[in-house]
Amino acid sequence: MINLGSLFGQANPPLAGVDISTSGVRLVELAEAGKGELLLARYGFEPLPRGAVVDGNIDNIETVAEAVRRLWKKTGSKAKHVALGMPPAAVITKKIILPAGMSEDQLEVQVESEASQYIPFALDEVSLDFDVIGAAPNAPDDVEVMLAAARREKVEDRVAIVEAAGLSATVMDVESYAARAALERVVAGLPQAGKDKIVALFQIGSQATHISMLLDGDTIYEREQPFGGNQLTQDIVRAYGMAFEEAETRKRSGDLPENYQADLLGPFLENAALEVTRAIQFFYTSTPYTRIDQLYLAGGCAQLPGLLDIIANRTRIACVQASPFTGMQLGPEVREAQLRHEAPAYLVACGLALRRFG
Hints:
Elements: E1 15-20, E2 24-34, E3 37-47, E4 53-54, E5 57-58, H1 61-75, E6 81-86, E7 91-99, H2 104-118, E8 126-136, E9 139-151, H3 152-164, E10 168-174, H4 175-187, E11 198-204, E12 209-215, E13 218-225, H5 230-240, H6 244-253, H7 260-286, E14 294-298, H8 307-315, E15 319-321, E16 329-330, H9 336-342, H10 347-353
Parallel strand pairs: 1-6, 3-16, 6-10, 11-14, 14-15
Antiparallel strand pairs: 1-2, 2-3, 4-5, 7-9, 8-9, 11-12, 12-13
Helix pairs in contact: 1-3, 4-10, 5-6, 5-7, 7-8
Domain SHS2: 15-183
InterPro entries: ATPase_NBD, FtsA/MreB, PilM, SHS2_FtsA
Organism: Massilia terrae
């Protein structure tokens, strides 16, 4: 059995969650603050040059490893163990039913046998892991097992990045799972902890938007569509003749000509709202569900001024930014005002960091 590093494994403290995306590398390090509370010890972002990561694939390991090294130095992190995420499109997950009472070795053999039915690659090309979820519904003599598999080379690329930066990859998760783990803390703040509420999570990244619909913590719908912040960056490049990296930096800082909001940002926000409303309508027409009770925005684009308001107005759904650090104590290195603005971009990194606590 080739272990996914371990996708479902326990992590030994201290542990840093590291989210490697097209736009850059994000780090979150959490600690216990006593009485069941958590402390955000440090967090940070290091941008990546265009082409270093494309469609979730690492195209330049050394460039990304150097960004990780800079991020460690910038944040002052002393953590040597890292939790990493794989893009959802790179991981095959499947719930399977197996007889209860098997030993770990027997489970491994059975899972490997079952995996060959669902994985379109030779098993020796795959990193494979599984987790026993619990008793199978309506079948007390069986257990439900989550199977996860990814191309070994894609896992090894991420491991090679942190090893080149002098770190150790302890946990490999799926980015969408990590985001949902972080969102659970946010949803817990809803009335009755969100019981019986349908919650929508839109993670708008640089290249794609990942959509998850959840009911009582269970995923009832998931989809990804090709819309992200790079479209706005490209508009800035064309309009003002900037290099892509400069356009991205100035987009984040807001340091752009006066006509930027009216000519570029406004139309982009309209398109983003249209993408969200279309995705919601597709959810309604392709599932038995006809409502969404709460909508959360996350990802780098969630920080764009005006996006939250225009989506709330178009969808007529309660809409807020997903801040995964709500209710946490803040370390002395964390600036609260800056964190309030940047928090929605750290949903995945925070979910990965939470793996320290099992």
